[in-house]
Amino acid sequence: MSNLYRSPVLTIFFQLDPFNPTIGGIQTCIKYILKYAPVAFHIQLVGITQEKSAVGRWQTARLHGREFAFLPLLQIADDNIRGVVPTTLRYTLALRQYLTKNEISSDFYQFHRIEPTVFAKALHGTKLLYIHNDIYQEVKGGQKGGILWKRFPWAYFALERRLVSQFDRILSCNSESVRLYQQQYPAIAQRVSYLRNTYDSELFFPLSAQFKAQAKSQLLQRLGLKAHTKLILFAGRLHPQKQPVLLIQAMAELQKQLTQLANTPPEAHLLSPFLSHLLIVGSGELEGAVRSEIKRLNLDQQVTLLGSLPQHELAELYKVCDLFVLTSAYEGLARGSLEALACGTPVVTTQAGETPNFLTAQSGLVCGRSAVEIAHCWQQVLQQPERFPAAACTQVTEPFEARRVVEALYGELLSQWQTQQAPSAQIDPLLTSYQTL
Questions:
Q1: CA-CA distance, 92 to 345, in Å (whole number)?
Q2: How many whole angstroms separate alpha carbon 413 and alpha carbon 131?
Q3: CB 106, CB 9: distance < 8 Å
Q4: Which fold has domain 209-398?
Q5: Can you give the pTM of this predicted structure?
């Protein structure tokens, strides 16, 4: 590419199909970059596809009105379901095969998994690594399932030690991961920093009390549920990290607690029992186990599985549900908690990820990891909604607004690139007129 009025090139490596996106925080992060990064950047996405004929061929794509170059490395029919060989490993091997015969030229290279960076040392440019989970908990955690590295944690950390020094910046949405990386790799500690996870305020926002009541009434009718039923929402992959079976067990405990409350003489308590229903948005390898647990606990009438939904439909659920819940074993931040809070919906979460660090007493509760403790916190929020007003929920999310975070980071990268280019290259006037936040 000629240096005459050229744009900086940002290449993103991740197993994302932009035309058939799966549910997940990394996928959403990349979509927000495409939407809100300065238009001065020419973006390339090296991902996956459902179309076999498209593999290995660059094409022009468009998402959120943003045009970008797209290179699918392999065909994946459904990335929500994990195969015998993890998609990350298949993607890494496909990247190696492509780079042995072809060159990818870029000013910035962005990775969202450590494995594909095995072949990144030959790439010349500024390299960024995003850390989306508390990786040490993810690898060392005691829950069954999860990533393949749990079987060989020593191998993961050996690989990480070998690779991290190549990155100019390491960005994590989990403050504990930032601290551990800085301690583990003091030679590059100054390159490791905290980056807020984000939500899109154009999509996630609260409804007025009147419109919320109308929308919720319509949803209850569609679901065949009684008026005034309290709606509990979970959204995420049905994956060991999220512990969806524990989610079902907590729902069973909530029903027990409500039954006990209903049988208590009215004068012995100030709170009243209520009807509740759990909505589950998402799919994944544990869907069969979740359905089995629902049947075992006789919760067919109290739980509805909605499958994966597009973001705009999920946003409508956030706006009308009474509570958003997380039962995760580990997290980075958990974007769903941000999206729910931005819609004015309180959150109950286990002690996982960054959410407990910014959740206030008026926007939700942090609970223990047993089904009984989780259900008790759900009950508190649902019985006393006045303690968790929508305004308190939305207030805590303001610093995490996607446009603000993305424009600030990529505006900084753009300014650095401009400085490095001058005076050897002529910079497009569009770039010099851009102001970072």
A1: 39
A2: 18
A3: yes
A4: Rossmann fold (3.40.50)
A5: 0.84
Task: Give the dihedral sign, CA 213/216/218/224.
Answer: negative
- Measured distance CA(200)–CA(397) in Å, rounded: 11
CATH 3.40.50.2000 spans which residues of the chain?
9-198+401-432, 209-398
Q: Return the ∠ at Cα 94 (arms to 93 and 95), rounded to 5°.
A: 90
Contact between 234 and 378 under an 8 Å Cβ cutoff? The reply is no
Helix H or strand E segment including 281: strand 276-281
CA atoms within 13 A on the CB side of 112: 23
Q: Has domain 9-198+401-432 been given CATH number 3.40.50.2000?
A: yes
Q: What are the tokens at 355?
A: 């959410």
CA distance 92 to 117: 8
- Locate 218 and state its tokens: 């319509």
CA distance 120 to 127: 9
Residue 35's alpha-carbon distances to 65, 106, 379, 410, in angstroms, are 7, 19, 38, 12
Q: Alpha-carbon distance 20 to 91, whole Å? A: 17
Question: Which burial class, exposed, middle or buried, applies to 24 when counting CB atoms under 10 A from its CB (0-12, 13-18, 19+)?
Answer: buried
Length of the chain equals: 437
E strand or H helix at 304: strand 303-307
- From first to last of its 437 residues, the chain has per-residue pLDDT tens of 445 457 999 999 999 998 886 767 888 899 999 999 999 999 999 999 999 999 999 999 998 889 999 999 999 887 666 666 888 899 999 999 999 999 999 999 999 999 999 988 889 999 999 988 766 666 555 555 455 566 767 788 888 899 999 999 999 988 888 998 999 999 999 999 999 989 999 999 999 999 999 999 999 999 999 999 999 999 998 989 899 999 999 999 999 988 887 777 654 455 566 899 999 999 988 999 999 999 999 999 999 999 989 889 999 999 999 999 999 988 877 889 999 999 999 999 999 888 999 999 999 999 999 999 999 999 999 999 999 999 999 999 999 999 999 999 999 999 999 988 865 554 444 444 333 33
d(CA 246, CA 249): 5
